[in-house]
Amino acid sequence: MIRKLFSIIICMTILIGCKNKEKEATVELVKENWVKLFNGKDLNDWVIKIKGHPAGDNFNNTFIVENGIMKVNYEKYKDTFNNTFGHIYHKKSYSNYRFRMDYRFTGDQLSDGAGWANRNSGIMIHCEDPMKIGLDQNFPVSIEVQLLGGNGVDERSTANLCTPGTHVEMNSVLEKNHCITSNSKTYHGEQWVNVEIEVRNDSIIKHFINGEEVMSYNKPQYGGKVDYNEVFWKTKEGKPLKGGYISLQSESHPVEFKNIEILEL
Known about the structure:
- This is DUF1080 domain-containing protein.
- The strands form two sheets. Strands 1, 3, 4, 6, 10, 11, 13, 14, 15 and 17 form a ten-stranded antiparallel sheet that branches. A seven-stranded antiparallel sheet has the order 2-5-16-7-8-9-12, with no helix packed on it.
- The model has no long low-confidence stretch (mean pLDDT 92).
- By secondary structure, it is mainly β.
- It has helices at 2-29, 230-234, and strands at 35-36, 46-50, 63-66, 69-72, 86-94, 96-105, 120-127, 143-148, 160-162, 166-170, 173-175, 179-180, 193-200, 204-209, 212-222, 244-250, 255-264.
């Protein structure tokens, strides 16, 4: 009887051990493989395009790397922005993915920056090819996840939606307003904020701030006002926007980015 009981205990121990190993293997299989888009050392994997300057020209050293952080830097601008809107594009295009990073606004806006651009930046997704951007084009045709910092007083949401040359559907209705506010909290001062975007081709797109979903919409497509090559973009109106490049903005207020990563789905 004792031998039989001992055998049963041994079998159960082996079975439990196998179950645990199987569980560990399953966890290992579903481990998310996030890839760093920014190496914290240089901008070799990125393409810079600033209005009035050809792609690849980092005018006035606008984008720099310091202490593992990508910075929008205006030290050489002498407090004059002159509408030189800029974007820095990762070299690869993507379609289905999750993108995440941390950002914060620092210092003061350049004196001639637009009022709406104060503590304002953005992540442009499904962007057109940076090598085909017009010399004097303000913004790429894209979907913008607009990043805003609080002014210390008023409520000001972040991870909003703006649509340069595009439209989306919300609640099964084609949304033609250029900018739509999210449900996020306001983040004042120079605190770091985590933003994540889930992008499913031309299906659903979701915005998250500090892990909380603050906006979602469907069916990104071409349409609406553009500031360059209007005849060409008119021929694409209503067609689905399935993928493209990812870029970060420079709009006259210093801003910093770090922990820039992507998980392809």
